[in-house]
Design a protein that fits this description.
Largest sheet: 4 strands, antiparallel
Strand order of the largest sheet: 1-2-4-3
Helix content: 40-55%
């Protein structure tokens, strides 16, 4: 890694609220990591973020069932009225369990389209930053 890249990473980290250890960030990037967290700051390479988002959403059926009923209807083709009834009866986990991989992929796309990645990866304030190095783009989420 060139000195200018290291300097860019240091400056980037110094400007984040949590100020992660820039040396660790350099090490992770040099090792080719596409998803890592340092000092409550998560770095995810843009080429991997959609798959990571879908994987994390898949692991929590309750959260999937909490999506807006219109979003679930758009992703599944199910009648919005039935989704509304199920949600009013607190069947969030049942809704999530009924979603297929394709549905989850579509829901993830809807989430990103309307709220960006920060809504999922940055529970603190939903923001996201971008770090570009040698053609690799990392989306960065400061969770503190």
């Amino acid at each position: 890694m060139q000195y200018s890249d290291i300097k860019k990473i240091k400056q980037f980290c110094d400007n984040l609220h949590s100020q992660p250890d820039w040396r660790e960030v350099v090490e992770e990037i040099e090792n080719g990591s596409d998803d890592f967290e340092i000092d409550d700051v998560r770095f995810i390479e843009s080429n991997s973020i959609d798959a990571i988002l879908e994987d994390e959403l898949s692991s929590d059926p309750y959260i999937l069932g909490c999506f807006a009923s219109w979003a679930i209807a758009d992703a599944t083709g199910w009648p919005i009225e039935l989704i509304d009834i199920a949600q009013k009866n607190d069947a969030f986990e049942d809704i999530g369990k009924a979603l297929t991989g394709e549905h989850i992929s579509d829901l993830a796309s809807i989430l990103v389209q309307y709220d960006g990645y920060g809504h999922h990866f940055n529970r603190y304030d939903g923001s996201e930053e971008e770090l570009i190095l040698n053609g690799r783009t990392y989306l960065v989420f400061d969770n503190h």
